[in-house]
Amino acid sequence: MKPSLNRKWLGLIALMGICFTLSYCQYLGKQVVDGGHCNYTTKIYPAKIVAFTTYDSIHWDLVFERNRDNLIDSFTYSYATKNYFLKEELSKYKIGNTYQWKEMNIIDGHCNPHVNSLIMQPYQSNNLK
């Protein structure tokens, strides 16, 4: 006697349910949690102000040149911090001033694997590198 079409579908659905349950069970107790304690390697590179630019008539930006392992590239303050300056705030910054670009790469843990930040403190060659 041939099984009906409905029985075939029910059997297929039951088989899929069993496969899903078995594959899910292997992850019980092993789920990776984001965050927690993580360890990073840290390098600090010089980031020199090379220009001022305006975003609009009110907001201004700093353009930096970064020397990272003898490769030079540029970025803006707004790229690094998601902020701009008002024109009167720019008076404390001068072209040629060098600040710190901090790069952190994860060694272990389940945090963000790459963390970059601009630190607006003067760069000195004896900074952590």
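Second entry:
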Amino acid sequence: MQFIKAHPARIYAVAVAALALVAHYVPSLPSALVLGLVAAVLGTGEAVQRTENAKTAGAGEDEHDEHQDDEPATA
């Protein structure tokens, strides 16, 4: 579970690539199934994007707090 929380974008990319390969090499899949999976993938991508944005925003706040005292005072 910790790995999933740490690397959601990587897991998402692998899952989407695998889904694309399956859709390409198994042409007998019903189009309704493929379209449903595409919709689910798009929704999951939005969730992954929000998770990554939150991680980036949190890292930026931590960095700003650490280096706040390093800035020279202006006169």
